[in-house]
Amino acid sequence: DSGIETGQLEGAVQVLREGTGEGLREAPRFDGTTHTLSFELEEGFRPGSRYEVVVSRSVAGPLRAEDFRWTFRTPVPQLVQTLPAAGDTSVIPGLGELQVQFNEALDEAALKPENVEVRGSGQALTLTGRRYEGGSLHLELAQPLQAGTSYQVRLAAALGGPLRQDEGDYTWSFSTRIPSIERTLPAAGGS
Fold first, then answer.
1. Confidence (pTM)
2. How far is the C-alpha of 125 from the C-alpha of 18, rounded, in Å?
């Protein structure tokens, strides 16, 4: 409702992510017309995290007894679509890239090789690339999908932030078609 001590803004705002201080992009700004104090995190908000903001009582003058505090959480990304689809048992062999769509941004800082795993018939497969753009994660396989093979994909819960840990890793599986003989020449059983 009223102004604040703008001379007290330097160092007056602290943002904690999971209890650890985050850097601010620049000093907090106060708009006297709208009575709004604004600030930005240096690296932005990360998904699936608990935040606490503390604004020093010093900005409100000597009569303010306590700091201003509030907490909030950023959304945990949920897997909304995969290519190939989860549970599909008739994927055409030869596909060289898997795609995963999320409803919220992933924690790109956690997009490390150890947090992404693709297995074919139980054997770890080599990825030649991991690309995240527009809410989609693209996993490039060194070898295309093989016929008659079951595949499992695991993305570590870390990609969804600390709040994803209780839900566990993102996982899904699919399998490629098993080839069948449609006809033979000469015809089977023929003479």
1. 0.83
2. 34
